Amino acid sequence: MFYTYVLKSIKDDKLYVGSTSDLKTRIKFHDQGRVTATKGRRPLKLIYYEACLTKDKAEERERYFKTGFGRGFLKNRI
């Protein structure tokens, strides 16, 4: 199983979108500051995730969420 996830920074209210095969461990890495892209934006809160059957589908959803339409979808969904 693969996951696409969205984190929200409590510090600056911005969103981070990513994908992974191990959601629990990846979130732990973000919380520990081991991910460069979010290190300075902690604390973070997991606000949305989707499970996908393939890595390609998870990465496709990640790319979609990073577009204007995808951001709009997330805004309406959350």
Fold blueprint:
Blueprint: E1 2-9, E2 15-20, H1 23-31, E3 44-52, H2 55-65, H3 68-77
Antiparallel strand pairs: 1-2, 1-3
Sum up the structure in keywords.
three-stranded antiparallel β-sheet, GIY-YIG endonuclease, single chain, alpha+beta
Structural class, judged by helices and strands? Answer: alpha+beta
| Topology-level CATH name | GIY-YIG endonuclease
Estimate the helix proportion, in percent. Answer: 25-40%
| Structural Rg | 12 Å
Distance between the termini: 23 Å
Order of helices and strands: EEHEHH
Shape: globular
The low-confidence parts are none
Q: How many beta-strand segments? A: 3
Mean pLDDT: 96
Largest β sheet strand count, sense and barrel closure = 3 strands, antiparallel
Please report the first level of CATH classification, the CATH class.
Alpha Beta
Strand content: 25-35%
Q: Which CATH-level-2 architecture?
A: 3-Layer(aba) Sandwich
The name of the CATH superfamily reads: GIY-YIG endonuclease
Instruction: Give the neighbour order of strands across the main sheet.
Output: 2-1-3
What count of structural domains?
Answer: 1
- H/I helix tally: 3
Q: How would you describe this structure to a colleague?
A:
- The model has no long low-confidence stretch (mean pLDDT 96).
- Helix content is 38%, strand content 29%.
- It is an alpha+beta fold and 78 residues long.
- Strands 2-1-3 form a three-stranded antiparallel sheet.
- It starts with a strand and ends with a helix.
- A hairpin with a 5-residue loop joins strand 1 (2-9) and strand 2.
- It has one domain: GIY-YIG endonuclease (3-Layer(aba) Sandwich), CATH 3.40.1440.
